[in-house]
Amino acid sequence: MSAPASGTAPSLTLTGDGPPLLLLPGLDGTGLLFYRQVPLLAARYRVGTLRLPDHASSMGALVALVREAVRTLAPAGEPVTLVGESFGGALALSYAVEHPGTVGRLVILNSFPHFGPQARLWLGYHVLRATPWGVMRIVRQLTAWRMHSRHTGRDEIQRFHALMRATTRDGYLGRLALLRTYDVRDRLGALNVPVLFLAADQDHLVPSVAQARLMASLTPGSTVRVLAGHGHICLIAPDLNLSDVIDEWVATSPPPSS
């Protein structure tokens, strides 16, 4: 992966050539878990990977950061393919409804249009706040079997644990707090770009399949694809090639509106 781009989006890392594609990370916010997918995507796209700040006052503030990244990634104004995973999917949808003219296609993975029940979110926030941060490494190790795809090997899971050392408590807490007011259900009907909702059928963190079908029912002309045998953290699985998945979808979906 290349060095972060200079200019208006210092948290943006660029690699590859071709049509612009922007990756938005999940709750960890680092973008590091795209490591297997970036080289595959960079063979066809100019790929931007955004690292989210630990402190953001609102989802709107993150949307503004994505807008800066889009300008850097596509300086000529060409529409960008936006790929968001989990929390990144919520951010991608929030961005797309605010800046529809800058998005060519949307790919939303293991995400949701609104996080419910709110009591579970509140509980998760306060448990995380009270838990010593050093204990989180042990928690991730104990829950790995629930989070990863069944074909993800031990080496990849160990690399996952190593990468997650770059996460921060403030980042997690800040993004969890933003989900308390996040709700785009009544705005999905206005999207007029092709949207692919990807959902892992072994996701034990988010009811991804049910959420994908809900979002598709609210989004005109969208597509749902279920990723069989995959868990919430599926992008590091050796049998998932996001570039191939997108290519197959693009080949069968209508072109973006001009």
What does this structure look like?
With 258 residues, the chain is α/β, with parallel strands linked by helices. It has one domain (12-252): Rossmann fold, CATH 3.40.50. It contains ten helices and seven strands. It has helices at residues 37-42, 59-73, 87-98, 118-130, 135-142, 144-147, 154-163, 169-178, 208-218, 242-252, and strands spanning 12-15, 20-24, 46-50, 80-85, 103-109, 195-200, 223-227. The chain has a seven-stranded mixed β-sheet. Helix 4 (118-130) packs antiparallel against helix 8 (169-178). It is globular, with a radius of gyration of 17 Å. The relative contact order is 0.16. Mean pLDDT is 91; it is low at 6-10.
In short:
This protein is α/β, with parallel strands linked by helices and 258 residues long.
Describe the protein's topology.
Blueprint: E1 12-15, E2 20-24, H1 37-42, E3 46-50, H2 59-73, E4 80-85, H3 87-98, E5 103-109, H4 118-130, H5 135-142, H6 144-147, H7 154-163, H8 169-178, E6 195-200, H9 208-218, E7 223-227, H10 242-252
Parallel strand pairs: 2-3, 2-4, 4-5, 5-6, 6-7
Antiparallel strand pairs: 1-3
Helix pairs in contact: 2-3, 4-8
Number of strands: 7
Strand content: 5-15%
| Integer average pLDDT | 91
**Shape label:** globular
What's the helical proportion of residues? 25-40%
- Count of helical regions: 10
The count of domains is 1
CATH superfamily: Alpha/Beta hydrolase fold, catalytic domain
Structural class: alpha/beta
Radius of gyration (CA) equals: 17 Å
Element order: H for helix, E for strand: EEHEHEHEHHHHHEHEH
Characterize the main sheet.
7 strands, mixed
